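User: Hey, my collaborator sent me this sequence without any context and asked if I could get a structure. I don't really work with proteins. Can you help?
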Amino acid sequence: MTSQDEIKNTQVISYLMLRKAIGILGITFPIILIVGTIVSCGCLEIQNSISAYYHTCMHNIFVGILCAIALFLFTYTGYDSTDSTAGNIACIFALGVALFPTSYSGPINCCIPKIIDNGIISTIHFISAAGLFLTLAYFSICRFTKTKNEPESCWKRLLPKKSGQRPKGRKLIRNRIYITCGIAMIVCIISIGIYKLIQDTNLGHSLIKLKPTFWFEALALWAFGISWLTKGKTIYVDVE
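Assistant: No problem. I've predicted the 3D structure and written it out in structure-token form, which is a compact way to encode the shape of the chain:
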């Protein structure tokens, strides 16, 4: 192997490791927060949202994991400049989620002992969270389904094709995983928005014990993680 081949091979390995690292962080994030509050705070109750963990004893871990994800997204390049730009945008949104905490309106417990009203900062947080998941959904649906040097737009790739023009084998399965994960993230964001609109109604009050925002955020993170692990050749790798 020539030195140029070695460099190229090293870059491929680095991209794969980066994708795997991002995927692992996405999947383990909610689990780390739950277990951490149990072990460190003695708080057995799941919070109303993942963002609420900013105000618990897991504050540093919450910020640290989001900053790590932001850094990985910033260094991600992919096939071309479009991947790099999308990664930079996602990085900014991830930092917005980490550095602009949400408000907290209860219930009061050993994890979060007071009501917190962050006003406009909370609004920036929600915009950043929505922007982050939408950008990650774009990665899954439009970027991960692309093959190198493919000229077609994302939307053309999603249109039905003749059997001979479709990806084959495990690439076809991976594309279905990417698209499913991307759609799942979008559905979760829309569901959170709908819940926010009805949370002060009788239906909203009856749902609060189920922690819908937390579970929709967790599902979105798991979809995000599965998508990046698949792209990192952890799931449905081509058989040589």
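In plain terms: The radius of gyration is 20 Å. You can pass these tokens on to your collaborator as they are.
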